[in-house]
């Protein structure tokens, strides 16, 4: 019954997230809005615990796409984590459906990234990573495909592929560089 809530504004803290949940009619315990260790600023996501799976499903449906401070929230069931030493928790590589894409042209957005990967499988989510201070693309992103087979095929087909004159670096997101 633990859910992930992402695409929060950078000034959203746990108290603000609790208010968002309350306005949406969701009674839940906000575990935390994850903050940068050095700056203390929100990293734009947090975790919420609900009393049952049924309530969590309703919360995901209500929150996913809900607009808060001009941003469409992303809500999903939380993924399991394991310890990874000093770096902190790392997502367990159970399904291998998430793909990292590096060396992206600066003009690529979520929609064009999704379109680029659509030929290689059903795209569940496509997300460009933006610099929180400037709002500009950081030149990399992630695509989640619907199956490990599709993710593997996308990596094989697109690693080294040309995208607007740039040679893409594509790998499973949960593998080392």
TrEMBL record:
List cellular component terms (GO).
chloroplast; ribonucleoprotein complex
Q: Give a GO biological-process term.
A: mRNA processing
Q: Name one Pfam family in it.
A: RRM_1
Q: Which residues form the RRM domain?
A: 1-80, 97-175
Q: Which species?
A: Selaginella moellendorffii
* Name assigned to this protein: RRM domain-containing protein
Superkingdom of the organism of origin: Eukaryota
Question: What SMART domains does this protein map onto?
Answer: RRM
Q: Which PROSITE patterns match?
A: RRM
- UniProt subcellular location: Plastid, Chloroplast
**GO MF annotations, alphabetized:** RNA binding
Task: Indicate yes or no for the key word Chloroplast.
Answer: yes
Q: Which UniProt keywords are given for this protein, alphabetically ordered?
A: Chloroplast, mRNA processing, Plastid, Repeat, Ribonucleoprotein, RNA-binding
> InterPro entries attached here?
Euk_RNA-bind_prot, Nucleotide-bd_a/b_plait_sf, RBD_domain_sf, RRM2_NsCP33-like, RRM_dom
The record's annotation in CDD domains points to: RRM1_PSRP2_like, RRM2_NsCP33_like
């Amino acid at each position: 019954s633990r859910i992930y809530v992402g695409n929060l504004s950078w000034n959203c803290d746990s108290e603000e997230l609790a208010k968002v949940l309350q306005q949406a009619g969701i009674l839940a315990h906000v575990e935390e809005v994850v903050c940068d260790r050095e700056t203390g600023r929100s990293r734009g996501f947090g975790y919420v615990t609900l009393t049952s799976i049924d309530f969590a499903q309703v919360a995901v449906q209500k929150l996913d796409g809900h607009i808060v401070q001009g941003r469409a929230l992303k809500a999903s069931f939380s993924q399991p984590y394991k310890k990874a030493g000093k770096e902190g928790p790392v997502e367990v590589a159970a399904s291998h459906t998430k793909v990292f894409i590096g060396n992206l042209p600066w003009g690529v957005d979520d929609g064009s990234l999704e379109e680029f990967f659509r030929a290689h499988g059903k795209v569940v989510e496509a997300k460009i990573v933006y610099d929180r201070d400037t709002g500009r693309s950081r030149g990399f992103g992630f695509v989640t495909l619907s199956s490990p087979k599709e993710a593997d095929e996308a990596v094989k087909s697109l690693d080294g592929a040309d995208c607007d004159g740039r040679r893409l670096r594509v790998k499973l997101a949960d593998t080392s560089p």
